[in-house]
Fold this sequence. Notes:
The chain is mainly α. 53% of the residues lie in helices and 0% in strands. It has helices at 5-32, 39-49, 58-66. α2 (39-49) runs antiparallel to α3. The longest helix has 28 residues, at 5-32. The chain is extended, with a radius of gyration of 17 Å.
Amino acid sequence: MRMTRDRVLDLYFMEARSKLIDLAAFLDRIDRAKGEDDFRIKALRKALKELDHAKPERAKRVLLSLSDPTTEPLPAAATKAAAGAWPGTKD
């Protein structure tokens, strides 16, 4: 059985509101900090645009916009940690 829109709002609105405020605060900190944007913040800003489209599967589109689209494995990892966004190069 599908939930009603009111039920979804009752259950999840405050959590989504909190995450939205956290994201806005993060972006404010980025804007106040010195330095240039790197691939992560550029990818995040691009992914945020997916939220503005009233099309289904926003979560999928956001995830794909942050993911590595290549299909060939790298011979070796370039770093020891995940970056959370694809830098846009195959190096």
